[in-house]
Amino acid sequence: MRKRGVVLKLFVVTTVLILLVFSLVMLAEGLFFERFYRTSKIHALERNMNQFAEQFKSAEADEQETSRLLGAFMNHNDANTSILNKRFDRITVHPYFLELQAGSKTITIRIPMNGVTMEAIPQGLQIGDQLVVDGIFMDEEDTILHPAAIRQQHNNTALEEGLVRVKGKITDLMLPEQRSFNPLYQDVLIDDALRDWVPRSEPYESRLQSGSPVQLEWTDEWSGVRYAVLIRSLPEGKNGDRYLFVMTSLQPVGEAVEILKKYVVYMAPVILVLVLLLSLIYSRIVSRPLVMLNRSAARLAKLDFTVEPEIRSKDEFGELSRHMIAMSRNLDSALRELTQANEQLQEDMKEKQRSEQLRKELIANISHELKTPLGIVKGFAEGLQDEVASDKRDRYLAFIVNETDRMNALIMDMLELSKFEVKAVRLEMRSMSMTDLLQRVLDSFSQQLESKQLQVRLNHDEEDEPFVQADPRRIEQVVLNLLSNAIRHAVEDSVITIGVKRTSPGKVCTIIENTGPPIAEEDLSRIWDHFYRAERSRDRKSGGTGLGLAIVKHILELHESGFGAMNTPQGVAFTFTLNESRGDLHE
């Protein structure tokens, strides 16, 4: 079955969805955008006309405030606006004006709806700017000026006949702002719209008087531009009924829709290429974590926990990655534990087999070790039973006592060894001098040393004597067994060397070395076993019980000591280490 990658699927789905959404948006713009724009603009105008009506009632008495209110409404809504009387005739209100302070006189310059273009008014005028205006005064007090020319600077041009020139500082102003096309020309169009509407206004009068707005559409015959017309009544004041007539152009939206259609035709190939490219990039970005997780899962299936997926995002992919990392670590840990448990189980099985073999050897060795002295005891006892000669009676009894002592020593060692093997021995750790202990033990071997003409050399640092942390009684037992073994196997007239020294920080090593025959290399690791004798051919009289080194091994293991035996050029050396103690010496 052919594999379809997630990247390809995401790419196809994303491309189709984007193109579908883009097509729907373009279709909606072509069909509904113009209607939506008109509806939104008319609703906004109605809302602002209501606000204007509320403000007009308080400003009606002040002509200047009424002009300012009307001019602000026209600028804010980009609409041509006029106030009508009850006969739907325009009431003269100049929404745009300039107020100059010329000496001690304040002069108002009304910007007429006709006869003046936007180019005739300097741009960027602000309160405080100096202005030069040529025109005609319209009142007897020379305070209202009809402008003919407006300049920011006096350039010494000749004053036309019949005009006056006024120069002053702007103290107040209201000028067209944010208006499309020429607002002054559009304001003149109100007269044309009124001439077309007034003859047909009778059906709308009752509706206007009830306070409901009237919505119409008017087309300028000269330019062909369509306008939306809204009329509503104003609060009745001292001057009788008033109406607010608002006209706004619908040409911008029509032009925008036409341009948008052309734009789509030219931009469609570019948009298609961008959609394909961005969809490919998007699909790769989204699918990359999934591909990484898939590879990681494949490695986990092969029990490879070495590589972890590095996805650091704070989304579901990142959370899944962290869960997989945790699962990988847990599986790795569990597998390691299982491996260790399996290895431990195999070691336990080997140890069990070894213990079983040792048990069989122990039984055999015990039988052998007890059989010989029992046979000797039985032989001498039978001799005594047969009433041997009186001169042999004492010698037979001595043999019986000697073999009985040997069997008793063997049984005591076996009991001691069994305590260590079942972990029934508890150490009483104390700080002690290793040199003093060695000296006490050596004193107990004075007779054996003299009988073999042996000398003992004790090497230690008298000025900085090391102390160890150990159980004195058990370590004394270790030294007794090792010294007894060294004396037993030393050649006559030789030297036994005992050394005590620090080998590493916190460790004290004791070495007992004799001069004698070496131990075979294959026997060095087995001398610590039960009843194991390196000299299999020696007689029982010089052999001991065969359990001394096994007891030594258990005691040193309880002390967590390192120990061992090795051949030297002169003979054999036994070593063991103990933890150094800095505490006080306890006798």
TrEMBL record:
Domain (Histidine kinase): residue spans on this chain: 365-582
Pfam families: HAMP, HATPase_c, HisKA
PANTHER family membership: HISTIDINE KINASE, PHOSPHATE REGULON SENSOR PROTEIN PHOR
Chief location of this protein within or outside the cell: membrane
Lipid bilayer topology: Multi-pass membrane protein
Coiled-coil segments on the chain, per record: 324-365
Reaction it catalyzes: ATP + protein L-histidine = ADP + protein N-phospho-L-histidine
Record has Transcription regulation as a keyword: no
Record domain HAMP: where: 284-336
Protein name, UniProt field: histidine kinase
Classification via InterPro entries: BphY/WalK/GraS-like (IPR050351), HAMP_dom (IPR003660), HATPase_C_sf (IPR036890), HATPase_dom (IPR003594), His_kinase_dom (IPR005467), HisK_dim/P_dom (IPR003661), HisK_dim/P_sf (IPR036097), Sig_transdc_His_kin-like_C (IPR004358)
